[in-house]
Automatic annotation (TrEMBL):
PROSITE patterns linked to this entry: MFS, SUGAR_TRANSPORT_1, SUGAR_TRANSPORT_2
One term of GO molecular function: symporter activity
Similarity field: Belongs to the major facilitator superfamily. Sugar transporter (TC 2.A.1.1) family.
Transmembrane residue ranges: 21-42, 80-99, 111-130, 136-157, 169-187, 199-221, 284-308, 320-342, 349-371, 383-403, 424-445, 451-471
Protein name: Major facilitator superfamily (MFS) profile domain-containing protein
Compartments where located: Membrane
Superkingdom, taxonomy of origin: Eukaryota
Gene Ontology cellular component annotations, sorted alphabetically: membrane
Keyword tags: Membrane, Sugar transport, Symport, Transmembrane, Transmembrane helix, Transport
Pfam families listed in its UniProt record: Sugar_tr
Domain Major facilitator superfamily (MFS) profile: 25-475
Membrane topology: Multi-pass membrane protein
Length: 508
């Protein structure tokens, strides 16, 4: 039977402030985003490097340099090449489901530690790879690392952050992804110039740097008060941690809500079964829809294959990598802006602004490529520059909307009893569609040509309408009181209103 979650804090808000302790611990935990972003940037860069292609994917290398009859859009179409990129995400999908149990039973900290350690091992294997099998096995280890980190880090950040600043703190995860992506592109740009052709090894092996920071840093991370209460009977220790995190001794209202949430959690033996119950329907829909929509914006195929895409429009190897650096800078700066405004403007407003911006820029990119790039020959420098500018506008729109909010909103909407399972579903759906898009993009580019941008633009219209009609505003709402936003929403209250009217009287 389920227990009640009463509102014990005045006006739905708790006491507390942003403390240096919270900032420091969240900065360390957010390094989990750096390893994800670094991998996205590095894999796209090395797959455009000719020495890397010549060693591991000679068929692609031959098509790119010697086959003059093949279409510009089809030069990189290789299932083996896309398997190198996408194998990480199947491994991450499976790992995230296992990570749910680890995060729930043992806490957020052990999952972060396991993620860093697996990624560290994968980076070593990738840098030392002698054949494509070593390369892909290294990618699988990287995927396990990313699966554990992406499952646990957003939860950790949302639980540590004060409600008034939860958006900014959680977006630190996406900012870290941007920093990792930018760092990878800078490293690729530098290592491509190594004359002997082994620069790609440095690019792959340097993933060990953020992985080491995450692994060592996680040893010193405190567990969140939510997790301590959920997994321990030492409530006094949890209360002391909550006081330290909030920077005040007056935490009784929040502490009471955490205990009540934990009481509900302990009655739930099978979170993945319970999450399909009607009272959790809105959260389950969002756990599936938001990561799905985040991927069909087309962002990850553009970031994976940015250098490949730029080479498709006839830029040279070095210019392609430099253009990817530019998009990385633009994305990172835009995510930082999102951190500053998300708790003021709210989640819905940023979703709307970003959606309109992405749609318009994708239409422009698709139109320019359709008009200027044929199956053979090149495109003028001026038009290539214009295409890069619109891609940057697109990346900007994603970086202050669906990029950070795609991780923030799912991590803050789940009740404690299904929080770990819900986050695992979010990560698994995200990785599933990253895998599908990464595995199919080069083939779609070959067949759709410029129409690929209109395809993603159509999805952006759908997802913007979805947010407008079905996603309630969650800014400033304490995470353990989030069920209120569904009971007050025009659509979801029809489904959960009666169910949640008195949770203390219900049985599961």
């Amino acid at each position: 039977m389920a227990v009640g979650l009463a509102i014990t804090s005045e006006k739905g808000q708790y006491n507390g402030k942003m403390t240096p302790f919270v900032v420091l611990t969240c900065m360390i935990a957010a390094t989990g985003g750096v390893i994800f972003g670094y991998d996205i940037g590095i894999s796209g860069g090395v797959t455009s490097m000719e020495p890397f292609l010549k060693k591991f994917f000679p068929v692609v290398y031959t098509k790119m340099n010697e086959d003059t009859n093949i279409s510009n859009y089809c030069k990189f179409d290789s299932q083996l090449l896309t398997t190198f990129t996408s194998s990480l995400y199947i491994a991450g999908l499976v790992a995230s489901l296992f990570a749910s149990s680890v995060t729930r039973v043992f806490g957020r900290k052990p999952s972060i530690l396991l993620g860093g350690a697996a990624f560290l091992a994968g980076s070593a294997l990738g840098g030392a790879a002698l054949n494509v099998y070593m390369l892909i096995f290294g990618r699988i280890l990287l995927g396990i690392g990313v699966g554990f980190a992406n499952q646990s880090v957003p939860l950790y950040l949302s639980e540590m952050a004060p409600p008034k600043h939860r958006g900014a703190i959680n977006i630190g995860f996406q900012l870290s992804i941007g920093i990792g992506f930018l760092s990878a592109n800078l490293i690729n740009f530098g290592t491509e110039k190594i004359k002997s052709g082994w620069g790609w090894r440095i690019s792959l092996a340097m993933a060990a740097a953020p992985a080491s920071i995450l692994t060592l840093g996680s040893l010193f991370l405190p567990e969140t008060p939510n997790s301590q209460i959920q997994n321990s009977k030492d409530y006094e220790k949890a209360k002391l941690m909550l006081q330290r995190v909030r920077g005040t001794n007056d935490v009784q209202a929040e502490f009471d809500d955490l205990i009540k949430a934990s009481s509900i959690s302990k009655t739930i033996k099978h979170p993945f079964k319970n999450i399909i119950h009607r009272k959790y329907r809105p959260q389950l829909v969002m756990a599936i829809a938001i990561p799905f929509f985040q991927q069909v914006t087309g962002i990850n195929v553009i970031t994976f294959y940015a250098p490949v895409l730029f080479r498709t429009i006839s830029l040279g190897e070095s210019d392609s990598l430099l253009s990817a650096v530019v998009t990385g800078v633009v994305g990172t700066v835009s995510t930082f802006i999102s951190m500053l405004i998300v708790d003021k403007l709210g989640r819905r407003a940023l979703f709307m602004i970003g959606g309109i911006q992405m749609f318009l820029s994708q239409i422009m990119v698709g139109g320019l490529i359709a008009a200027q790039l044929g199956d053979h020959g090149g495109i003028s420098k001026g038009y290539a520059t214009l295409i890069i500018i619109f891609i940057c506008i697109y990346v900007t729109g994603f970086a202050w909307s669906w990029g950070p909010l795609g991780w923030l909103v799912p991590s803050e909407i789940f009740p404690l009893e299904i929080r770990s399972a819900g986050q695992s579903i979010t990560v698994a759906v995200s990785f599933l569609f990253i895998f599908i898009s990464a595995q199919t993009f080069l083939t779609m580019l070959c067949h759709f040509k410029s129409g690929i941008f209109f395809f993603f633009g159509g999805w952006v219209m759908v997802m913007t309408a979805f947010v407008y009609f079905l996603l309630p505003e969650t800014k400033n709402m304490p995470i353990e009181q989030m069920t209120k936003v569904w009971r007050e929403h025009w659509f979801w209250k029809r489904i959960v209103g009666e169910v949640n009217e008195d949770r203390s009287m219900e049985a599961p």
